[in-house]
Write a structure and sequence with these properties.
heterodimer; A: mainly alpha; 3 domains; about 0% strand; B: alpha/beta; Glycerol-3-phosphate (1)-acyltransferase; seven-stranded mixed sheet; about 40% helix; globular
């Protein structure tokens, strides 16, 4: 991967993009006057600074190979699950089930990818954990809010562990005919399109956003942001078809899938935050919030992108 | 050696459960204080010490039960050397059980108390009278309510295994004994001050525990 010229070009492109963003942020910070605008620009610059860190960590992990990438996503799942369960009102009696979720389910799911055991990877959480977890919970004898507790822990696992693990599971797709590039480029492709979609939806929303899409769920989501940001992400995704097994048209379709799924991922996780009565999932990433605030779109986009690619492009 | 053990232990606590402080009603300050918190696990003492700024740690002493923290050499070392704790007899024993606390307050030090005296398991129980008696004797010490979030889920009774949820220590606005205020009245108000920092669920579950007995 390290001496893959496409990888180096991609990283150079992302670094160039961030450099331009940092420059714009710097210029904006000097120009704005009103307190409201100052706050927006300060948050924008905090986000851009955090992006440098996130890109460095992610590119470093891909560069260091499959096991490091899996380790990174394993940690993200662990921290994401922690954010989810911290806000979920479980009860002290769920202790054993939660120990199982954090210290058995998370490592095992990533171990399955490390050993390329696709068959079990795909059913472990939806089948085995689905049965095992409520079985452990019921042994505590605590029936108060039982369904809600079991369902919430399972949702946390499905989102932060199962769905998210589909992103590094793209590394398993190494038998795509006429591709010949390392599948880590597919992971890079997914992350670039998802995050560019988020970034451009934010930018277009801030610049042209008028019509609120779902004001009761997320005040920052606008029709103008979704359309402008979505189209920009699809254009980037189509242009990047050279690193994928797709044609330009297919890549545009895949990017549209990623954009729509990612959009709903963000919206659904916002609704859950509303339900919990919080604004952010955590405070791990400065300017962005928690891990789940940054990975919400990936959680919805990764499984769909994985299965679309696997169904149509692998033998 | 002890400084290293402290850094390691508190680092581990930060890593596992966050243990971040949120100063909601007051700011960290080098003045004499009695922090009083809800009690739900053996981690409570560690979390509250980890949440305090390091410059306050040497002059702030958690009050711990001798029957647990004094039971083995390791626990005694952690309590007395690493955490600067002061051990008291919960059962009463001979003499005034508050005497070691009074001595520390006399010397201008700060204390961390768990007025419930026992772990509540997600419910904040009735407060014992030590907090009231000490504040009458040392009116200069500021009484700061603290609510420790999630610890009943992180490490419930009867287990030593830690579920790594994020625990925040919320520090509320200081209270004081009003002139002529009775013991029961004040203790109920102190408990309310901790409950006010907690979530709706804990308040609901604790409602019955406060009025009973």
């Amino acid at each position: 991967m390290a001496n893959q010229p496409l990888f180096q070009w991609l990283i150079a492109g992302v670094v160039g993009f961030l450099a331009v963003a940092s420059l714009i942020g710097f210029l904006l910070a000097r120009r704005v006057q009103s307190p409201g605008a100052r706050e927006t620009v300060a948050n924008l610059n905090a986000r851009i600074r955090a992006w440098w860190g996130m890109v460095a960590v992610f590119a470093g992990a891909i560069f260091l190979g499959r096991n490091v990438t899996l380790g990174l996503f394993g940690i993200l799942s662990f921290l994401g699950l922690r954010e989810f369960i911290t806000l979920t009102p479980t009860r002290p009696n769920d202790h054993r089930a939660l120990l199982l979720a954090f210290f058995v389910v998370v490592p095992f799911q990533y171990w399955l990818i490390a050993t390329s055991w696709y068959g079990l990877f795909a059913v472990f959480i939806p089948v085995y954990v689905f049965v095992l977890l409520p079985a452990v919970m019921v042994l505590s004898g605590d029936t108060e809010d039982f369904l809600a507790r079991a369902a919430k822990v399972q949702w946390g696992l499905l989102l932060a562990v199962y769905a998210l693990s589909y992103a590094p599971a793209l590394l398993l797709l190494d038998d795509i005919p006429n591709y010949g590039l390392p599948p880590a480029l597919l992971l890079l492709y997914l992350m670039i399109v998802v995050q560019m979609s988020d970034v451009f939806q934010y930018v277009f929303g801030k610049l042209f956003g008028r019509t609120h899409l779902a004001p009761a769920v997320s005040p920052s989501k606008t029709v103008e942001g979704l359309i402008g940001g979505g189209l920009a992400a699809v254009a980037i995704g189509a242009a990047l078809h050279v690193i994928t097994p797709f044609t330009a048209v297919q890549a545009a379709g895949m990017s549209a899938l990623i954009v729509v799924a990612g959009f709903f991922g963000g919206l659904v996780l916002s609704a859950i935050k509303r339900d919990f009565g919080v604004k952010d999932w955590g405070s791990t990433i400065k300017g962005h919030g928690g891990i789940l605030d940054r990975m919400d779109s990936v959680c919805f986009a990764a499984p769909l992108f994985f299965h679309f690619t696997r169904y149509w492009f692998t033998p | 050696m002890t400084a290293l053990a402290r850094a390691l232990l508190l680092g581990l606590v930060h890593l596992l459960v966050g243990a971040q402080a949120r100063w909601e009603g007051t700011a960290p300050a080098r003045r004499q204080r009695i922090y009083f918190a809800n009690h739900s696990s053996h981690l409570d003492t560690l979390v509250i010490i980890a949440a305090l700024p390091s410059e306050l740690r040497s002059e702030t002493h958690p009050v711990a039960a001798r029957d647990y923290w004094g039971a083995t050499a390791l626990r005694r070392y952690i309590a007395l050397d690493v955490l600067n704790a002061v051990l008291i007899d919960r059962s009463g024993g001979e003499g005034d059980p508050l005497q070691p606390l009074a001595e520390l307050l006399q010397a201008g030090q700060s204390l961390i108390l768990f007025p419930e005296g026992t772990r509540g398991g997600g419910v904040i129980g009735r407060f014992r009278s030590g907090l009231y008696n000490l504040s009458l004797r040392f009116p200069a010490a500021e009484l700061v309510p603290v609510y420790l979030e999630n610890l009943d889920r992180i490490m419930p009774k009867k287990t030593m295994l830690v579920v790594p949820l994020i625990c925040t220590a919320r520090f509320g606005a200081p209270i004081a004994v009003s002139p002529g205020e009775g013991k029961a009245e004040f203790l109920a108000r102190a408990r309310e001050a901790v409950l006010a920092l907690s979530d709706a669920r804990t308040r609901r579950r604790s409602a019955a525990a406060g009025t009973a007995a």
